[in-house]
Design a protein that fits this description.
The structure is a single chain. With 161 residues, the chain is mainly alpha-helical. The chain is 64% helix and 0% strand. It is built from eight helices and no strands. Helix 3 runs antiparallel to helix 4, helix 4 runs antiparallel to helix 5 and helix 4 packs parallel to helix 6. The protein is globular. The protein starts with a helix and ends in a 13-residue tail after the last helix. The relative contact order is 0.09.
Amino acid sequence: MKLLLTLFLWVNFANTPDLASIRKMYSDVAKSETNAKEFVEKLSGVSNNDDKILVAYKAASILLDSKFESVLGSKISRFKEGAKLLEATIKSDPSNIEMRMIRLSIQEDVPGITGYKKNIKEDKKFITTHYAAQGAALKEYLKDFVLQSKSFSEKEKQFVK
């Protein structure tokens, strides 16, 4: 019986990626199709019932992967799928700063024609307001994002320094 329980737990957690490795991959995922595909693969086992931050990264992986679709219909379909999942995940926990950062990172890089740029100001304000209350590891991760972000001016970036 213990063996079955151990095996069940191992199989359940073996498919779920750890957040630290996902964060590490995320900063480079948009740089190439290979990186995007690896990111999608790493998050393929994440279901909507898993940790909401992982679900938000999965949504981002779908959005980023859509960039590399060659057929326009598939590109639009994947993009909508990812955006819908990301919005639903944020709606389930609107006070999660990391999920807001994920959405901001996507929205600042998508073409204006997508119409998916409506939360940039809101997410910038949320990150700026709630940054100080975060733990050390998350603050460092957010700082790295803010310092390279196109959405924050040099003056606005001062809150992380």
